[in-house]
Amino acid sequence: MPRFHGQSNHAPVDIVNQLQKQYVDYLSSLFHEGVLDDQFTQLQKLQDESNPDFTVEVATLFFVDSDKLINNMAAALERSPVDFKQVDADVHQLKGSSSSIGAMRVKNLCITFRSFCETQNYEGCLICLQQVKNECAVLKDKLQNLFRMEQQIVGAGGSVPLMD
Amino acid sequence: MESCNCVEPQWPADELLMKYQYLSDFFIALAYFSIPLELIYFVKKSAVFPYRWVLVQFGAFIVLCGATHLINLWTFAIHSRTVAYVMTIAKVLTAAVSCITALMLVHIIPDLLSVKTRELFLKNKAAELDREMGLIRTQEETGRHCALWMPTRSGLELQLSYTLRQQQNPVGYTVPIHLPVINRVFSSNRALKISPNSPVARIRPLAGKYIPGEVVAVRVPLLHLSNFQINDWPELSTKRYALMVLMLPSDSARQWHVHELELVEVVADQVAVALSHAAILEESMRARDLLMEQNVALDLARREAETAIRARNDFLAVMNHEMRTPMHAIIALSSLLQETELTPEQRLMVETIMKSSNLLATLINDVLDLSRLEDGSFQLNIATFNLHAVFREVLNLIKPVASVKKLLITLNLAPDLPEYAVGDEKRLMQVILNVVGNAVKFSKEGGISITAFVAKAEYLREARPPEFIPVPSDNHFYLRVQVRDSGSGINPQDIPKLFTKFAHNQSLATRNSGGSGLGLAICKRFVTLMDGHIWIESEGIGKGCTATFIVGLGIPEKLNESKFPVLPRGSSNHVLANFSGLKVLVMDDNGVGRAATKGLLLHLGCDVTTVSSGDELLHAVSQEHKVVLMDICTPGIDSYEVAVQIHRLYSQHHERPLLVAITGSTDKVTKENCMRVGMDGVIQKPVSLDKMRNVLSELLECGHQMSSLARV
């Protein structure tokens, strides 16, 4: 991702406003759809001068982590006999990560996934795994959009508005 | 023959006879001369000798006789005429004097003899007189007499108590009190003459000779102890009199004079006082003996009571220990069981076991408490607690039993009832539980309703009993709890006995009437200690029963004093905005979570170190870290064990870092587990910035106190 600093060329104010409004709308829609929850806002609040890329870093971490976990789960489910305990542990991890970042949908899927693991429902697990995979991809995509918007705003000389 | 004027002796000069005669004459003369000398000597010695001239006469006679014999000495040999002449003259004289003396003696000797007789006579007379005098004295004494008659206990007789001479008169001799003469004497305060023939005067059997003299009697008031008031002169309100009788000597012509009677009266008064003093002294000595006896008995009783108390305490101590040991096993093993993998039903069962066994442990404590309650050495543990939670707890505990009996339990907490209160939570719960338990126990059907509200002052005045008027103030209030049941009711007559220890109520015999009967007694004591009152009303058998109690509780001042800062209810007054430099150690095996928490803390200014496992945590933790945040959702890592380890590491120091658990679960079990292992706080995910800020600031304020509270 291109680096961005606070200062840049000074675009006209209305462009900044427009960008900001777009950003806010986009973020609201994400909340509205349930992709993100309040936890994400909390993370955003933690971003400051000492920690300017905090949200991005955490998001990156999440994606790396979730990819790894999903791959593990897929591998575990392909083995026979299936080690449901291992899958459950991974799902638990994913649940924790997603709740930390505020990825609500992913988190909810993980809860369902866990119950399937407890009942050792193989089909259920497979379905859930697929859903989780999809959901993570969606989240990644949306967050990338969001961060790009943030960069644009900052690049235009504005500041990223925080959701209350 | 020559004519010499010599005279020749008449006799022939027989040599031997002459010699004897010569000698005899010599001695006679000697004797005759010495007798007058002796006489003179002894008469001079004696003072009185009336017959001096007789002595002279006799002296002369003797001297002349002596002279004669002396001169005779010369006539034995041839002697001159002169000597013969002298001899003749001497003889003549001697004859003359002798004849006179003889004549005189005839008169004198009878006189002398009569003196002797007189002397003898006088001696006899004196002896006789002495005898007579002795007789008269005895007579006198037998005649004069003084006696004191005291009334007997029955008051119907007078008993002869004291006489002048004890040995002669029988003490114990009684006369009836209602004789006219005695009445006469008793009714007057003067000394009265009485007849000598009256029974009181006739002390000895009369001997014929003695005509008794005049007798005087006077009453002597017997003053009782009660007559002596502190500041008053003794009142003569007594009816008891003694009789003092004075008898003049018999055969005596003496009479009682008026002044003598007055003297007698005065003496009688003195006697009265003396008798009263004696009586008082007797009384006080008796009282003192009684007191000493009582003292000894009391001392013995006290020692026995002390022995009994010691024995009871020993018994209680032993029993408590014996009861506690298995209880401890139950509680310890149940809590261990709780930590293992359990199904939800199993967990519920184990929780109930734990709660019941905790309750039982409390009961065992309270048996000991009861003895301490009675000794007066019991003290409540005052702390802030959640009042609503207490009621909910009771409800939870009683619900299983109630549902088995199909009883409906309703709990009604007034809206103005404070959530937190200051008091002894354990004992309050015990009281509520006991009352509600009784309600459940004695109801076979229907329902139990529990209402709790804050007692207002005017309502309190109407409450029974009227003498209990508690006054709520700014920092305490009165909680009133009413438990109504639709059970078997109580006979109103039995109600007072309910709160007596061990008193079993026969009319309440149900199948479940087991129990020692201690419950209500303990409740009453606790309630009283909490400055309250408990009472039970019932309209009769079968009409249900209402138990009500009022206790005083404090109002907690700061919300910060709540036991466990689990969910900060809005920001408190002292929120540290900046935790700069605060060293925090974060343990989370989830990378994202780790990053999120780290970011949070970094934002708050903390100096954050992260670890991903329990072992790393134990390695990394040091005294510099003020707070350790542990994510306890991670399976495979026993965060509780880690907490215990940290406690062990830092058991000696006071610089143990504060332990905070981050958990995603909201159930109480997690909270309790955290408390058990000694966590200082619990944060529930999702963690917001404000949440973290509040928790941290509260923790840092209260510090390790929380852990000691959390250890309950």
Structure explained in plain terms:
The complex is a heterodimer of chains A (164) and B (712). Chain A is elongated, with a radius of gyration of 18 Å. Chain A has 164 residues and is mostly helical. Chain A contains six helices and no strands. Chain B has 712 residues and is of the alpha/beta class. Chain B folds into five domains: 13-119; 144-163 and 174-203 and 212-226 and 238-256, no CATH class; 280-378, Signal transduction histidine kinase, dimerisation/phosphotransfer (DHp) domain (Helix Hairpins); 382-502 and 516-554, Histidine kinase-like ATPase, C-terminal domain (Heat Shock Protein 90); 583-710, Response regulator (Rossmann fold). Chain B has helices at residues 15-45, 52-72, 81-143, 180-186, 258-339, 344-375, 387-404, 425-441, 457-462, 495-498, 519-529, 591-604, 614-620, 639-649, 668-677, 689-702, 705-710, and strands at 145-151, 157-163, 174-176, 192-194, 215-221, 241-247, 383-386, 408-413, 420-423, 447-454, 476-485, 533-538, 545-554, 583-587, 607-611, 627-631, 658-663, 681-684. In chain B, the strands form four sheets. In chain B, strands 3-2-1-6-5-4 form a six-stranded antiparallel beta sheet, sandwiched between helices. In chain B, strands 8-10-11-13-12 form a five-stranded mixed beta sheet. In chain B, helix 15 (668-677) links the parallel strand 17 and strand 18. The model of chain B is unreliable at 506-516, 559-573 and 705-712 (pLDDT under 50).
Outline the fold blueprint.
The complex is a heterodimer of chains A (164) and B (712).
Chain A: H1 13-33, H2 38-45, H3 54-78, H4 84-101, H5 104-118, H6 122-155
Helix pairs in contact in A: 1-6, 3-4, 3-6, 4-5, 5-6
Chain B: H1 15-45, H2 52-72, H3 81-143, E1 145-151, E2 157-163, E3 174-176, H4 180-186, E4 192-194, E5 215-221, E6 241-247, H5 258-339, H6 344-375, E7 383-386, H7 387-404, E8 408-413, E9 420-423, H8 425-441, E10 447-454, H9 457-462, E11 476-485, H10 495-498, H11 519-529, E12 533-538, E13 545-554, E14 583-587, H12 591-604, E15 607-611, H13 614-620, E16 627-631, H14 639-649, E17 658-663, H15 668-677, E18 681-684, H16 689-702, H17 705-710
Helix pairs in contact in B: 1-2, 2-3, 5-6, 7-8, 8-11, 13-14
